[in-house]
Structure formats: C-alpha cells, structure tokens
Automatic annotation (TrEMBL):
Cited Pfam families: IQ, TPR_8
Transmembrane portions of the chain: none
The name this protein goes by in its record: Uncharacterized protein
Record lineage: Eukaryota, Sar, Alveolata, Ciliophora, Postciliodesmatophora
Source organism superkingdom: Eukaryota
Organism: Stentor coeruleus
Length: 387
C-alpha cells in the first residue's frame, strides 16, 4: 500500500511498529536497519495528528540512536524536538529530560544537566504517587540528580538524593540500582571525610596534655602520667662579620668597620701565635712536616675473555687470493636493527588499516546525516507550501 493511501489509524500502527523494531535493532547494534526504520517512521508522521504521542516517541528514539553513535549535537536536537510536542504521558517526558541530562553531562555542562534531572525527578515523583510500579524510574532519576550534584561539588545535596534513592530501593525491593547507589554513597562519604579539616590546624605544639578532673592528693599524684612536650625553640639570628674589600657590599659606618677590623686582627694574631707554638713543639719532639705516603691496595679483577667478531666479506671476494683486512660485523647488533625496522613496518601497516576503517565508518555516518538533513529540508518545504 502506498503512503498516500494510508489512513491516520493505519499510519499510527505502522509508526509504532517501526519504532519498536528500530529500538530492538539498535540494542543488537544493527545501526543501518534501525536508522532506515526510524526514517520511515519520521516520514509517516505527516499522516497523523501532531498531538499524537507517536511524535515525541519517534523523535526521542532518533535522539537515542544519535546518542548511541556519539553524535551528541544531533541527539540534543532530537530530544528538544521531542519535548516541543506536548505529551500526556509524563513518564515519557521525564525519560526525555533524563536523556537530555546525560547529553549535557557528557559535554560537561553539569548545571544544565542538573536542571533536566531535577525536572525529571519532580515529574516522576508525581507519577510514583499514583503508580507505585514506576519506582525504578524514580530511583534512577534520584541517582542521576545525585551524580550531577556531586559533579558540581554540592556534597550535601548529592548525599540527600543518593539516600532518597537508596530508601526507595529498599522499600520497593529494587535490586537494579541498589548496589550502584550504595557504592556511590560510600565513596561520597569517604570524600567528605577526606576533605574535612583537622581538629588542630596549628602546627605549634601544645605545652602539656589536657588533664582529667581527678583527686589531687599527694598520694594519687604520683600515679598520674603527664607528658610534657618541648616547646618550639625560637629562631636565633647570627650576626656574622661581613667580608671586607668586596666590590659590591653595603656601606658600613666607621664604628662598625673598626669593630670588624679589630676582630679580624685578633684572629690573625691568635693564628700567628699558634704557628709559633707548633714549631716549638716540633723541635722538641723531633717531628717534621713530611708528606704522608699511602700505598693503594691492588685489586685483582677477573680477566674477561676476548671474543673475536665474526668476519664477513663482500660478495665475490676470495680471502685466500687477497688477504685484506675483512669487515667485522656484530651479528647481535644487526639482528636488533632488522627487528626494529620490521616492527616499525608492522605497526605502520596496522595503523593504516585502522585509519581506513575509521574513514569508512565516518563516511557512513556522514551519508546517514545527509539523508536525515534531506528529509528535514523536504519536510520544511512541504510545511511552507501548505502555509
């Protein structure tokens, strides 16, 4: 049957079937067939009312398709288009908000991701009050909201939403997200303990430990253990005399210069007296200033045997006729060089194959995007012609 002859009810049945099959193919990684079915479903949307729930469902599934292929800009466009069509099903709207939150989070726009997560959480809370079977969706929304608060370093709010999701999971016996949320909450508590301030931030030592209110009689004082810590020693500043006669030095007063000269002259006089006494002592004892001779110890190292290199000759050379000096070749070194060149050739070949596959995949994606843009242009022209 031709698309022009379809009634709205028939078109809606075909669109819903295409959407179901496309999602099944997307989960099994058959991207091309999934995209073809979604494209057909999008073409048939003109046959039904714009207020129909199949409009947001189709665009939401297209957003999930582009999100799987990591085309985040196109995915965001499809999700926003899905939200433009108002839908009576609140759970579907909340799911689209959660998908948008994940897109913003991947692009590190955590404030926008948090706004969408909070919107989804508030919608799903209303749904949960009327339908307790939707607890899993609310638990997931609480987990996503906590994650975004954690990314924005608002630890208390993140802990609050994690705890709320954990309580809901225990009340409804939901094991899907219980372990994931409990692990995130424990890691968050460890972070908070690690970033908390120490009790005593000062580096100064305390003079003595705090004492307990006990009986201070002379008999019992001997049984009280008291640790007396040493106080920090003050810094001592040494005023050494400067070296005189330097080209760049500060200008000193005459009184200071005279005092330094006096100290230097006293030191020189003491040195001279010590030299005189040392000479007298050597004359009395009969010792002289002879240089001390030290004989170094001889270490007997083991002899390393000499290994002759392998001799190689050029082709057509006869050593018996012309015994010239042959060329010495290190076989190990040559083997290493050959192996290095072979590895380089092998890695370059693998790199070329990977690049070729990546180029083919990108070309397929570009073709799919081009087809999608053609459809959008055609639809916009049709809508302008109807106006």
């Amino acid at each position: 049957m031709d698309n022009k002859e379809l009634t709205p009810s028939q078109a809606s049945i075909i669109i819903s079937d295409h959407n179901k099959q496309a999602i099944e193919l997307l989960t099994s990684k058959n991207y091309q067939q999934s995209f073809n079915l979604l494209k057909k479903a999008q073409d048939l949307l003109n046959k039904i009312d714009q207020r129909d729930r199949l409009y947001p469902i189709t665009y939401n599934n297209l957003g999930c398709f582009y999100k799987t292929l990591k085309k985040f800009d196109l995915a965001q466009l499809m999700f926003e288009k899905s939200l433009e069509h108002k839908n009576s099903e609140k759970s579907l709207t909340a799911g689209t908000h959660l998908n948008l939150s994940s897109i913003f989070s991947m692009n590190k726009l955590h404030s926008k991701a948090l706004n969408n997560a909070l919107t989804a959480f508030s919608i799903l809370q209303e749904v949960y009050e009327g339908d307790p079977n939707s607890a899993d969706s609310l638990i997931f929304a609480a987990f996503v909201t906590g994650k975004e608060y954690e990314a924005l370093k608002e630890i208390k709010q993140a802990e609050k939403y994690y705890q709320h999701g954990l309580d809901l999971a225990t009340d409804n016996n939901s094991t899907d997200y219980y372990e994931k949320i409990s692990n995130a909450l424990s890691l968050l508590k460890k972070k908070r303990i690690g970033t908390s301030k120490a009790r005593y931030e000062s580096n100064m030592r305390r003079a003595e430990l705090p004492t307990i209110n006990t009986d201070r009689s002379e008999f019992k004082k001997q049984y009280i253990v008291k640790d007396d810590y040493k106080k920090a020693t003050p810094r001592v500043y040494h005023n050494y005399p400067p070296i005189l006669g330097l080209p760049y030095q500060r200008n000193l007063t005459t009184a200071v210069q005279n005092s330094h000269k006096k100290t230097n002259s006293n030191i020189n006089q003491i040195k001279k007296e010590l030299l005189v006494y040392e000479k007298k002592l050597k004359k009395i004892t009969g010792t002289r200033n002879e240089p001390v001779t030290r004989t170094p110890k001889r270490i007997n190292l083991p002899k390393i045997p000499y290994i002759k290199p392998i001799k190689a000759y050029s082709p057509g050379y006869d050593p018996s006729v012309n015994p010239a000096s042959p060329v010495s070749v290190d076989v190990n070194r040559m083997a290493i060089i050959i192996q290095k060149h072979w590895r380089g050739y092998r890695d370059r070949k693998a790199c070329r194959q990977r690049r070729r596959k990546l180029a083919q995949f990108r070309a397929q994606e570009a073709i799919a995007e081009l087809e999608m843009l053609k459809v959008l242009i055609k639809k916009s022209k049709d809508s302008e012609g109807q106006l």
